[in-house]
Every structure is written in structure tokens, then in C-alpha cells.
Amino acid sequence: MVFRWFFALLALISFPLTAHAREEPSIRSLLEALKIPFSEEAFLEEVRKGNSETVSLFLEGGMGPNVLDSNGRSALVWAAGNGHAAIVKLLLQNKADLCGGGSQSPLLWAAANGRREAVAALLGSGARACEQDKTRMTSVVAAAQNGYVDTVELFLEETADVTEAEKTSALERAAANGHLDVIHLLLHHGVAADAKTAPEFNPVGSAAFRGHTEIVKFFLDRGADPNGPVPVYGAPLGAAAGGGHLQTAKLLLERGATPTATALRSAAQGGHLEIARLLLDKGVDVNAVDADKTPLIAAIAGRKTNMLPLLIERGADLNAGVGFVEPPLLLAAQSSEAEMVRLLLKGGANRDVRGRDGRTALMWAAISGQLEIARALVEGGADVRAKDQMGRTAQVYAKERGFAEVVRLLMEAEKKKAITD
């Protein structure tokens, strides 16, 4: 870089400047001497690199401060996001658009990346006015989510318009991402430990889902409700179960969380075996229905074969559907998981159980060409001659769809049955 500037100075001798300002041709020649073309692409590249002297030359040479890249991001967005505070100030002095340049404002980019000096420069120019809808992700929340405590502190201490809703959202995001120092800061600034965001997200539930056990403990120690509402998962225990975090689940149970069907369904659907075992040991009904699923149906829906032996051992109903949900064997036959089918048959499931349309598991295997599932069912004694409400057999379905190997398997099975009959 030193040599490049040396040659640039030589270029200035050939193109002397006036006492008041550099002329555009001289500046462009200087850039050419640096082997930098006077183009929008080159300008943005210098902004991204943080070369403030070169950026200043571009601006003096007539380059507009609101140049956008191919993704619609402005020079100010790049400078702010990369933490080049000197360039942020240069661009602002040249009337750069505080709010423009992509789906996220320069302030949000700077905050999300913890660029404190750039944030300070933008705040000083009134950039908070770009965040009129403070119910969405704002710069304060983005800084908290990513753990930039110094940047969050800057917002809280240097601006007067941080809303209570923003602080609450920042607390929830900090909890979800394990940033205890940010949590301490927000509580110091008056945010309640049990604060909830819309729609009903709370710090304990968010931390539990991510398995931040120490943060869950932190909030519980300060009076947070271990059974507070959490979307989808019902309560923090359900969130821990859905996320597969055994130690977090144990802590919540120790601190008064209620073992629920939602938690068991979440563990089963996620394949979290030890959490499911823990909940069953705590007395949750193995056949409890939640969100139109028993734990067994949830495990099959999630294709979590590892869950089936435990649920079968604990007495799961192998033949019961729920509402419009088909019985387990039919669901397994449609899942492409042959081992599930084998486990259900071994556990005593009705091999010829029918759904609402009269189809059996063998018919579903034939319809989708699942050879291994069809084989498991045939070996398990499924009736190859069974007909549905339209009078079709599994073999008819396989022939219609061109699944030759399944057809061959079923024909051989039917021949054997004819011999034994």
C-alpha cells in the first residue's frame, strides 16, 4: 500500500490541485495510479475493506454516497456492518441515506454485528428514526440476540426512545442465545425477569428450548414460573423436551414444572429417548393425546424409530388412531421406515388394521412401492388377498403403479398362501 501511495503522489505532481479543492479529473487519475477504477463496484469494495482515504477520494471525485450493490445493500450498510466508523462518518457527511440500502437499516446491521462506534455515529445522526415499527426486530434486539453487551448498553444509556417492548424482546433473545451478561444489563435497567413478549414467548421457555440450563436456573432463582406459557410447547418443560435437553428438563422438574402430555409428545416426535423415559417415569400417560397425536404416533410422524421400543414396552396402544389420524401401523407403512413396521408387528400390532378408506398397511406399501415394508408385512403375516372399499388388493395397486418387485413379492406370497390353504 505504501508503494501505491508513493506512485499516487507522483501522479499528483502531474495533476496539481487548486488551493480550494481537488478537481475530479485529478482525483480519478490518482485512483488510476492506485490501480483502482472509478466505478461503483470499486467504491463499494473500498468501503467493505475499510479504506477510508480511498473512499474519501471517491466521494470527492463525485461518487454518490448511496451506491447499492447487486443485493440492494448500500455503502452505508456495508460500512456500518463491518464497523468502519470513519467511513460511516464520511458517508453521513456526504448525505448518505440513513435508512436506505436493503431490507435492514445501516443501524441494524451495525448493532447486529456489535459495531459500537458505528452505532454511536448513526445514533448521533438520528438513525433511530428508521425504526418506526418497534414491534419487529430492531437494532437493540439484534445487539442483544448476538450478545453485544456494550452495544446494548450504548442504546440503553445514550437513547431515550428504547421501548419497554424492545427491552422485553431483547431479554427473550438474549436468553434464547445464552447471553447472561446482556440479561444482567437488561434487568439492571428495569426489565422484569418474567417478562413476556407477544405472542407469549418468555425468557425461561426460550432458554429451555436451546438448552441454556444456567440461564433457566438464573430466571427460576428470580421467581420465574416454571410452568409459564410457551407457544407450541405449552411450557418450558415442553420446550426443553422438544429441544432434546435432558439436564434442562431435569432442572425444571426439580423446580416444580408439571410433567405433561405436551412434553412427552415433543420428546417422542424429536426422538429424545431419555427425556421421554424421564417423563414416563414421572407418570405421564404413554397414550396421552396432545395435538392430535399419542406419543407413538408423534414418534412415527417424526420418523424416530429409536422411540418405539420404549413406548411399546411402556404399553403404547399399537392400534389406536386419533381423530382423523390413522393407526400407527398405517402411518409407519407410509413413512418408508421398514424397521418401524417390524417393531410394531413384533410388539403385537394388528397387521391387517384398516384406515377410513379400508386400506391396509400392505396396500399403502404397494401404493408407494415400498418393497422392504411390503416384505416386512408379508413376513409378519399380513393378508395379501385383503381388499379395500373399492375392491382392490395390494397387488392391484402395485401393478397399476408399475412396481414390479412389489408385484413379484405379492404374487409369490399369494402362491404360498394358496398352497397352505
Automatic annotation (TrEMBL):
Annotated Gene3D superfamilies: Ankyrin repeat-containing domain
Keyword Kinase recorded: no
Entry-linked InterPro entries: Ankyrin_rpt, Ankyrin_rpt-contain_sf
Pfam family name, one: Ank_2
Extent of the signal sequence: 1-21
Residues in coiled coil: none
Keywords: ANK repeat, Repeat, Signal
ANK-type repeats, residues: 71-98, 102-134, 166-198, 259-291, 291-320, 328-356, 357-389
Protein name: Ankyrin repeat domain-containing protein
